[in-house]
Amino acid sequence: MTPSVLPEPAFPDLDSMLSRKFGKEVANYFSGSPLNRVSFLRTDHSFLSAALKHPTTSFLLFNNLDPLAKDPSNLEFASYGDVRPLIGEDPYSKSEGHLISEYDSEVTIPQLLFLGLDERNKEGLTYNIYAGSPFFALDVTPKGTIASQAESLIQTMQSRGLQFLEGRIQAALPAQDAAIYAQARALLDWNARNPFCGQCGQPTMSINGGMKRTCPPKDMASLRGTIGGNVGAAPTERPDCATRKGISNLCFPRTDPTVIMAVVSPDGKKVLIGRQKRWPPYWYSTLAGFVEPAESVEEAVRREVWEESGVILGRVVIHSTQPWPYPANLMIGAIAQCIPGGEEIVLKHDPELEDARWADLEEVREALRVGTSALGESAQDGYKEGNLRLPAGTAIANQLLTAVVNGFVWEAPKI
Q: How many helices (H) and strands (E) in the chain?
């Protein structure tokens, strides 16, 4: 597979004091979205209604978190006309408060996300001072009371020669499509993982354009068995819930911070790499781990490296970051240097790694040239069996190692 082109950072040609000192900003795969999220408009149902029906609006469909596509390198987007049989004429025709008051836990509501506006399209929706083509994501996984409509929509898409891309990681998409996919997948996954309130255990409801979940105070499902249906009857009050009091009244999407680091030897001539037992032969990467509560990024880098390899670190510098929607990580890339005398590798603390070793920069440089790939894929032409293998260019580990072999730790470092 040919590595996908990485996104351009914001204002790549702008000269500034920071860019002169630190170099051009590094943008990693799954970042660089072309969409303006206009997050402050997510509660404006007049805006969402207009965005939903605009002729330039695009809907990215997901079936079991697999995105709709022409092929592994090209997403395909549906229209409002395509999705209307599933979502209805206008799910935003009523206010958010009104929808919450009508909540019915026995009725499946299609999970719809507002992703943002593509302001590059001058023919897009204009709303107040904002303009662009709206983008939504929609979960079409057949379930509950919408199973038949969802199955029909899936069959319609497949009849056009389209497919839902299977596989956990999609890394062959163009950079900007990858960023849109990442945003949509992460939020759909979060909504699917949080159908119940963490405080009282009752079913929750998606609001705010799919970016929040709330625990409604009443449930219309209680009226289904009453004589005469809902006429004149009052829905059951649900149990008291702390999320409906004070300012902690909503459930927000989570992002899990994860550190990933290229560790350089005291003399700057070697870099620390490690491998897990399940990885292909000769395949190594940088070390990584989760940031724990009440821990700085720098402390997490030092702790994870010591726990996994026994190596003791001194200075830690943040290099760049990467959204990783599997399911909701933010990879915080760092470059760190081992202290003199702290180079000994000890694997007895945390059993996560099968092996860790120091690699010469020339070995790493050659692996970056011909030995990179995603897990389970072949290396490039020119690779010799038995030599070092490294992650593909779409992985932040690749960017960190590239920075190291290009002289990041030497005089006048540039990111």
A: 9, 20
